[in-house]
User: Which sequence fits this backbone?
């Protein structure tokens, strides 16, 4: 850092209004430099004896530039003491500028420069997901929360394809889970208080790549979970339970991808179901057995008004059947299982899994429950997106389901 | 918390006029600005916010003495009532040293008063302050309107509505005519300074 820097810090902690007051009461002369990673150039405000006399933000300068900088609600600042040679372009009183700046910001006349790229999209997202239910979780067990983080409206919490193994729990607020594709952003699910961001894959050594993007809707407070503790707990589980969990996680990922596929409209259900035999038929409640796939391939299919919808595929090591302690909303009550010709399956004792589930820590149990709820909701969304896709083809003018 | 400006040997403290929209906060401050011109330093800043105006100016109270040889400079603010002006409210209320709550005596504004007071409490809480501890003065404004036959709430009723638990000093007032404006401000400054002095003793 430059030696002449007299004051520096984060705009999230000390807002521009506060900084100007501070520099005003100390009667400082120098340059205030603001850095925002969402803006291409830094902003400058020039002070003489505590009063701002000029400012610069990109192409604009003077008072307009100064006001526009009030929109930089996060970023960093540094003040350097130096002689000012700039023209005196601003004559308005300090407090007048601050109050006017704040007012313009609150009135929405100043653009908030945060994650600027997603603001337009965020508005569209809100419209898209407004009808969707918000998945919430139970009360947060603070024992596992090591840190709190705040995100503002439209900010990306995690981005698809980026590395990271943190798991967050939403303490307050709403988050949209979305997938970025070439044609734009596809909403997947909306989650709220008590829900988790991050997946079981975080515990696997190789699984540190984020599979979807999480965007804050309104201001969101997140709790960072003690991932080491959770990973230790995960490592202490039986192999069977761990494969069960990863199997669930794989399903959830597939469901998410299915939404994208249906969105693009490139799924041929008929082909997939060819040469398949039914292992579990939908809505047959007497089926209370849990199976594991030993060989071959199985598909989870839901029969809807619009025909069968393939939810996900199961491979060697994956589980299917009735899970007594979780509500997945799929087979047996909400979906059928089709198996390939060469499929081999084995029965699984659900009792031992159930016992192990009961022994989980509250937080881990919440993560598993939350995952199950998300699976159930995502499956519904998959079916709905197919339905709306069909409606779209019937009525080409209809913009529904976009 | 007041700001100590060692360069100027001044203690800067903040007094905020709070209350429901159109209750007369701005009129109060305008009256102070006009009638105590000699004590006002700098210009009055007036910002038009939706349905209200936000005012600010510096004020040097005379005859309140000095604290530790430092002059006292008071920043007087009004705060915009609308929910959306959260940035302004945050800036104004942060580090507030004293508050004047201006209540509207009109019968129809009864509920608005109570909502605004509740609002003040929750806003203060956000900045880690308790409404019971912050120096607070009540002013029951627009008393003069009774002469025009407009139905007003009685002082007793307003005391019951707003001041039953708080038990802070309260004054009737008519900001348009200027009655009660001076006493309210003076009482608030006294309370503020008393509380500041208490703080210094703790610091010793």
Assistant:
């Amino acid at each position: 850092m430059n030696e002449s820097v007299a004051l520096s810090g984060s705009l999230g902690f000390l807002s521009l209004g506060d900084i100007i007051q501070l520099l005003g009461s100390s009667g400082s002369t120098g340059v205030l430099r603001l850095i925002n990673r969402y803006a291409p150039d830094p902003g400058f405000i020039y002070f003489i004896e505590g009063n701002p006399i000029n400012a610069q933000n990109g192409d604009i300068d003077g008072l307009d530039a100064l006001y526009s900088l009030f929109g930089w609600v996060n970023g960093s600042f540094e003040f350097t003491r130096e002689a000012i040679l700039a023209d005196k372009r601003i004559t308005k009183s300090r407090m007048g500028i601050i109050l006017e700046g704040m007012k313009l910001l609150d009135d929405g006349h100043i653009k908030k420069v945060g994650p600027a790229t997603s603001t337009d999209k965020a508005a569209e997202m809100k419209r898209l997901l407004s009808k969707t239910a918000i998945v919430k979780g139970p009360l947060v067990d603070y024992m596992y929360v090591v840190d709190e983080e705040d995100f503002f409206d439209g900010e990306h919490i995690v981005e698809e394809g980026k590395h990271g193994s943190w798991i967050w729990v939403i303490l307050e607020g709403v988050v949209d889970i979305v997938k970025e594709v070439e044609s734009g952003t596809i909403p997947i699910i909306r989650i709220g208080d008590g829900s988790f961001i991050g997946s079981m894959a975080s515990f696997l050594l190789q699984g540190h790549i984020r599979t979807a993007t999480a965007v804050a809707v309104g201001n969101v407070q997140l709790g960072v979970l003690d991932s080491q503790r959770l990973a230790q707990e995960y490592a202490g589980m039986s192999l069977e339970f761990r494969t069960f969990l990863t199997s669930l996680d794989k399903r959830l990922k597939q469901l998410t991808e299915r939404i994208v596929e249906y969105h693009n409209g490139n799924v041929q259900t008929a082909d997939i179901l060819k040469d398949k035999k039914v292992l579990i038929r939908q809505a047959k409640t007497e089926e209370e057995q849990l199976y594991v796939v030993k060989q071959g391939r199985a598909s989870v299919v839901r029969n809807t008004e619009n025909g069968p919808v393939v939810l996900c595929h199961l491979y060697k090591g994956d589980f299917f059947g009735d899970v007594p302690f979780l509500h997945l909303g799929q087979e047996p009550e909400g979906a059928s299982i089709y198996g390939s010709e060469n499929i081999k399956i084995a029965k699984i004792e659900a009792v031992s899994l159930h016992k192990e589930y009961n022994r989980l820590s509250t937080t881990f149990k919440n993560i598993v429950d939350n995952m199950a709820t998300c699976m159930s909701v995502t499956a519904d969304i998959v079916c709905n997106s197919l339905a709306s896709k069909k409606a779209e083809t019937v009525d080409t003018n209809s913009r529904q389901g976009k | 918390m007041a700001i100590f400006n060692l360069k100027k040997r001044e203690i800067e403290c903040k007094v905020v006029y709070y209350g429901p929209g159109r209750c007369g906060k701005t009129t109060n401050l305008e009256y102070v600005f006009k009638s105590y011109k000699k004590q006002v330093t700098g210009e009055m800043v007036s910002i038009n916010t939706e349905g209200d105006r936000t005012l600010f100016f510096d004020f040097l109270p005379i005859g309140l003495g000095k604290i530790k040889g430092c002059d006292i400079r008071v920043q007087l603010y009004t705060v915009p009532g609308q929910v959306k002006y959260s940035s302004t409210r945050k800036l104004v209320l942060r580090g507030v040293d004293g508050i004047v709550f201006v209540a509207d005596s009109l019968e129809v504004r009864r509920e608005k008063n109570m909502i605004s007071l509740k609002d003040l409490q929750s806003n203060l809480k956000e900045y880690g302050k308790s409404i019971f501890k912050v120096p607070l003065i009540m002013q029951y404004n627009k008393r003069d309107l009774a002469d025009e036959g407009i139905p007003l709430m009685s002082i007793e009723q307003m005391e019951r509505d707003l001041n039953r638990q708080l038990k802070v000093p309260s004054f009737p007032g008519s900001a348009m005519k200027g009655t009660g404006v001076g006493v309210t401000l003076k009482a608030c400054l006294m309370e503020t300074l008393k509380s500041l002095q208490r703080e210094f003793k703790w610091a010793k």
Remarks:
- Chain A touches chain B at residues 15, 17-18, 25-27, 93, 95-96, 98-100, 102-103, 105-107 (CB under 8 Å).
- The longest helix of chain A spans residues 362-394.
